[in-house]
Write a structure and sequence with these properties.
six-stranded mixed sheet; six-stranded parallel sheet; 328 residues; Quinone Oxidoreductase, Chain A, domain 1; 12 helices
Length: 328
């Protein structure tokens, strides 16, 4: 089979090498799937650079989520069978940047029939992150104001849709007019282009000075620091990631003075500590997909050979929505 392999660390465009490799064999509690579609996630780029918390032994194939058809099941697998269309986590080092990939059975779920392969592949990590972040960690309530940073990206676009479905007023922050248009199409009530506007001023103006009840922050750095200036009394700043490259050092005295919460989210831990909740969230997201409540934004479909450049564009922040490898 063909796969993209990382044998040395560096930028994705430099280290993702297209090779012929043996088809992997499923181990206990694993399934082998023919990959139908695999989105590029920011962690895929970080793995290439050796900057992700998971550091697989080289050589490895990235691709942390995918949609595919089961072709073989390993020992101990129950409830899954060959021919089933599934989504879930790629079992790196045999991830989804390939024609065939391994998946851990515990992180493999039925694909929603209403979505295409590319859309279904994009429903897992970003939407599960949004679901757990907004509902379980930040307890977003109907009528509240949700501020979403990087609102046109894969994680941010999911947060907009989930926030609107929850009955929140959504303010999306983006970088540039093209991304602003995407955020509007996704349903954001207010869109702020950070290149030309100050999101702090806009949030205060739109909320009558009260501020945002929940702030969804996958960026970190200065974005976090400025978010503290427009969070509401008893608001929640949700720490999702640090795509901006800088981990902020929060002033806890400021959180005390303004009575807001700084809430962390490492969604991957729920797969280990509360897998039943992950499955419940999957079922609810599939229901929402079937009724049109959510629909992953797929902006580009690329071939396997085009993935190194596509992964680099995601790493550099030059994409909107999801860029997805489709195995024709």
């Amino acid at each position: 089979m063909q796969s993209l392999r990382v044998s040395e660390l560096g930028d994705p465009r430099d280290v993702l090498e297209l090779v012929e490799s043996p088809t992997p064999e499923p181990g206990p509690d694993q399934v082998l799937v023919r990959v139908s579609a695999c989105p590029v996630n920011f962690p895929d780029a970080l793995m290439c650079r050796g900057q992700y918390q998971v550091k697989p032994e080289m050589p490895f194939t990235p691709g942390v989520e995918l949609c595919g058809e089961i072709v073989e099941v390993g020992s101990g697998v129950t409830g899954l069978g060959t021919g089933e269309r599934v989504i879930g986590a790629g079992a790196v080092p045999a991830g989804g940047f390939a024609e065939y990939a391994l998946m851990d059975a515990a992180r493999t779920f039925p694909a929603p029939a209403a979505l295409s392969d590319a859309e279904a592949a994009s429903l897992f990590i970003g939407y599960q992150t949004g679901w757990f972040g907004l509902h379980r960690r930040a307890a977003l309530r109907e009528g509240e104001t949700l501020l979403v940073h990087a609102a046109s990206g894969g994680v941010g676009s999911a947060a907009i849709q989930l926030g609107k479905a929850a009955g929140a007023t959504v303010i999306g922050v983006v970088g540039g007019p093209e991304k602003a248009e995407v955020a509007r199409e996704l349903g954001a009530d207010v869109v702020v282009d950070r290149h030309t506007e100050d999101f702090v001023s806009v949030v205060k103006e739109r909320t009558g000075g009260r501020g945002a009840d929940v702030i969804y922050d996958p960026v970190g750095g200065e974005t976090y620091e400025r978010s503290t200036k427009c969070v509401a009394f008893e608001g929640r700043i949700l720490i999702v990631g640090f795509a901006g490259g800088t981990i902020p050092t929060p002033g806890l005295n400021h959180a005390l003075i303004k009575n807001y919460s700084i809430v962390g989210l490492h969604w991957g831990l729920y797969n280990e500590r509360d897998p039943a909740a992950v499955r419940r969230a999957h079922d609810e997201l599939c229901r929402m997909a079937d009724t049109g409540g959510v629909s992953p934004l797929v902006s580009e479909r690329v071939a396997l050979s085009e993935l190194p450049g596509a992964t680099q564009r995601v790493a550099d922040g030059h994409t909107v929505g999801r860029v997805v490898y489709v195995n024709a």
